[in-house]
Amino acid sequence: MNGSTLKQIRNERGLSISKLSSMTGISKSYISCLERDVHKNPSIDIIEKIAHSLRVDVDQLLCRDGEKKPKKPHTQGFLQVEVSLSDYNLDMETVEQLEGLVIKINR
């Protein structure tokens, strides 16, 4: 996790460390250590709690300073859906309809 990114997002949201702590159930001292990069590898549970409270993707907390989260092409989301739906033996027409829905959702 990138501490300065966490601090920047927290400040952009107008949240104090105390407020983020109460929102996540994570101690103030641990959040402070994350922001100062004293602790660099928190558990995924911790990252997810922070991301949820800050209303950001987990990926955004993992990006380095100034690094932008790459946008995923629409087909990538579709491929993930198609793979998980492949167990259901759907015909190609149904899969194409689902692709259209995924593209609309991602817009």
UniProtKB/TrEMBL annotation:
The keyword DNA-binding applies. InterPro entries: Cro/C1-type_HTH, Lambda_DNA-bd_dom_sf, TransReg_Diox_bact_type. Keywords: DNA-binding. SUPFAM superfamilies: lambda repressor-like DNA-binding domains. It comes from the Bacteria. Coiled coil: none annotated. PANTHER family: HTH-TYPE TRANSCRIPTIONAL REGULATOR (PTHR46797), METHYLPHOSPHONATE SYNTHASE (PTHR46797:SF1). This is Helix-turn-helix domain-containing protein. The lineage of its organism: Bacteria, Bacillati, Bacillota, Bacilli, Bacillales.
